């Protein structure tokens, strides 16, 4: 299947088929197929080394697949795109470690993330429009950081940094959000609030969450895909995949 | 736009600079030699030299302090600007050289060359030479940066190749065949635009121009760093890969500031040459470039004002110490760098900020490159 500008090959927002990637002979991803529909909330679980991060790297153009098809919106071949290109297409990525710009204020972090011309000369002469100011206010309210607007992001708590980063992703108004272990290191209360936040976001945006925390995945209440050694072991509801014997063996069982 | 870019500290800096630019020439020209207020002529050129270093340091701070590009080869852009201006000054000597050739500079006559090399044409025109003092470093920085940043060479690796760049240029300029006067460089200048370089008035004029160039360069850098593009630069410095994922083409931003910075460095070099009266390949020496880094680190990285301050402090210390204890200057310079790194990671200006809130956009410390997620 060759990705041309012509009619879409699939209705899915993100379409991976038979994707493989090796690093020095180690097959991080092995014939992986995975589909995300527009507006869908989708959880990906799997033990360490299952290929979750490599999958995200491939989708965001950080890593090029050795073989297989990676299609965005049924048209664009993501294997030909770099990180900035994938961001411009509408793919937002949240890293496991919160990476906000620590020496910028919360407000400036959101400002940098807002959808606007990213060119050097455009930003050099950019001024804040009223619409952008409103958008920043809305985002601050959504991620509950209104009272921290002028705080340097480096001074936020771990959970607040995670929310700020989710806010930064939303500021780009992405079609797809990739969220890597958002609940890691959070308190139970923060975890539940994060799950609620992601469920609020889904619908307007497709959201793919990579997670270890089962309580969190339960709270997301969505379709789950289990990865193991670079391939899909099972998918369906959490109740469904938890009952698959192979899943119990490699991941849930002990 | 430019008024908003200047904070209180910027105005204090520009105010002090204005006072210096007025006071130094006055103390030289308007006072009688021997009077207590009289400033000797050599001091005017010396202070002018410090102002050139200050502009160079501000240019380096733009790329290092705000974008995290630690260039250990900024002296090369400075020297290229200096050579471009030196070439014009050589052409302006005309038939007054030792050998009296109306066109060829003395060193070419000495080497038995019978015509001017192609790249010396046009330098008889001042405007052309002045443009070249910025275009040549700008083009070099653009090509070098385009190759390096596109290949994602960062951190110490980039620093090392910038060091190699200036070293290679030094070796090249030492060669007589290059056509830039070999190890003697360009010297014996007579005048610029008809003004005698030895006269006090010309020296004072060059001093004022250096102050003006520093002020304009500083304001340009302030406008850049306070714009949204400036916030992107700081973002690149602190989390380069994160910035890419936000959709910014990091290499374009690096290329932009690196080129602007090189052009400012070239302008600084152009003002330096007529004031010291010579430009030779030692200006390309790696130690020179490292000295600029120390100036910026001492004053306070990512502050611009600190860079200018550091340049003046290091320049003055250099003058005094090489006069008093010629053998110890390099030890002092090295010790200074160690001391600043250990005890004043945010430089002289950082000491003033101590206890206060961290200024937005200020770098966290002197680390060459922060770990990325």
Describe the structure.
The complex is a heterodimer of chains A (254) and B (373). Chain A has 254 residues and is of the alpha/beta class. Chain A is built from ten helices and ten strands. The model of chain A has no long low-confidence stretch (mean pLDDT 87). By secondary structure, chain B is mainly alpha-helical. Chain B has a single domain (8-353), classed as ABC transporter involved in vitamin B12 uptake, BtuC, CATH 1.10.3470. A two-stranded antiparallel sheet of chain B has the order 1-4. In chain B, helix 2 runs antiparallel to helix 10 (250-276). The model of chain B is unreliable at 365-373 (pLDDT under 50). The chains are: A alpha/beta (254), B mainly alpha (373). Chain B: InterPro entries: ABC_transp_permease, ABC_transptr_urea_perm_UrtC, LivM-like. Chain B: Its main location: membrane. Chain B: The chain crosses the membrane at residues 12-30, 36-56, 63-85, 125-149, 156-174, 204-225, 252-272, 292-316, 328-349.
């Amino acid at each position: 299947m060759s990705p041309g500008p012509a009619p879409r090959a699939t209705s899915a927002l993100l379409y991976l088929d038979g994707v493989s990637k090796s690093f020095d002979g180690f097959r991080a991803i092995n014939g992986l197929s995975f589909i995300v529909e527009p507006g869908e909330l989708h959880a990906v679980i799997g033990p360490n080394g299952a290929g979750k991060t490599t999958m995200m790297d491939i989708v965001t153009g950080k890593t090029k697949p050795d073989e297989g098809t990676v299609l965005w919106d049924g048209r664009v071949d993501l294997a030909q795109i770099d990180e900035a290109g994938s961001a411009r297409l509408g793919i937002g990525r949240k890293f496991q470690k919160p990476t906000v710009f620590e020496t910028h204020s919360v407000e400036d972090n959101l400002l940098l993330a807002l959808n606007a011309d990213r060119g050097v000369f455009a930003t050099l002469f950019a001024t804040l429009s009223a619409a952008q100011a409103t958008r920043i206010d809305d985002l601050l309210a959504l991620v509950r950081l209104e009272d921290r607007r002028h705080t340097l992001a480096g001074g936020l708590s771990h959970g607040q940094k995670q929310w700020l980063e989710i806010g930064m992703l939303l500021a780009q108004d992405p079609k797809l959000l990739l969220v890597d272990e958002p609940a890691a290191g959070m308190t139970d209360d923060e975890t539940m609030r994060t799950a609620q936040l992601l469920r609020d976001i889904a619908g307007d945006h497709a959201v793919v969450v990579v997670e270890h925390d089962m309580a969190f995945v339960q709270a997301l209440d969505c379709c789950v895909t289990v990865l193991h050694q670079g391939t899909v072991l099972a998918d369906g509801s959490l109740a469904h995949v938890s009952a698959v014997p192979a899943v119990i063996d490699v991941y849930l069982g002990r | 736009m430019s008024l908003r870019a200047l904070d209180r500290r910027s105005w204090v800096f520009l105010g002090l600079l204005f006072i210096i630019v007025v006071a130094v020439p006055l103390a030289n020209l308007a006072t009688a030699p021997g009077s207590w207020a009289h400033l000797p002529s050599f001091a005017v050129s010396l202070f002018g030299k410090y102002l050139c270093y200050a502009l160079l340091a501000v240019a380096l701070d733009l790329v290092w302090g705000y974008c995290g590009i630690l260039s250990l080869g900024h002296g090369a852009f400075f020297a290229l600007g200096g050579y471009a201006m030196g070439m014009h000054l050589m052409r302006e000597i005309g038939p007054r050289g030792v050998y009296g050739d109306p066109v060829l500079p003395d060193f070419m006559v000495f080497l038995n060359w019978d015509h001017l090399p192609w790249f010396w044409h046009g330098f008889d025109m001042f405007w052309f030479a002045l443009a070249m003092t910025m275009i040549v470093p700008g083009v070099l920085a653009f090509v070098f940066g385009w190759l390096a940043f596109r290949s994602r060479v960062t951190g110490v690796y980039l620093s090392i190749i910038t060091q190699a760049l200036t070293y290679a240029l030094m070796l090249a300029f030492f060669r007589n065949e290059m056509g830039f006067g070999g190890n003697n460089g360009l010297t014996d200048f007579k005048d610029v635009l008809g003004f005698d370089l030895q006269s006090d008035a010309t020296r004072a004029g060059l001093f004022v121009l250096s102050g003006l160039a520093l002020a304009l360069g500083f304001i340009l850098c302030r406008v850049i760093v306070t714009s949204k593009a400036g916030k992107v630069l700081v973002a690149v410095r602190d989390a380069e890969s994160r910035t890419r994922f936000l959709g910014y083409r990091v290499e374009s931003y690096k290329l932009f500031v690196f080129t602007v910075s090189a052009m400012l460095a070239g302008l600084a070099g152009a003002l330096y040459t007529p004031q010291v009266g010579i430009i030779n390949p030692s200006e390309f020496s790696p130690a020179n470039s490292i000295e600029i880094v120390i100036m910026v680190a001492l004053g306070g990285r990512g502050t611009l004002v600190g860079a200018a301050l550091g340049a003046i402090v290091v320049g003055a210390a250099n003058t005094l110490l090489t006069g008093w204890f010629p053998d110890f200057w390099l030890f002092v310079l090295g010790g200074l760098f160690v001391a600043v790194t250990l005890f004043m990671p945010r430089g002289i200006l950082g000491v003033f900020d101590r206890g206060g809130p961290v200024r937005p956009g200020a770098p966290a410390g002197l680390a060459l490159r922060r770990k990325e997620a």
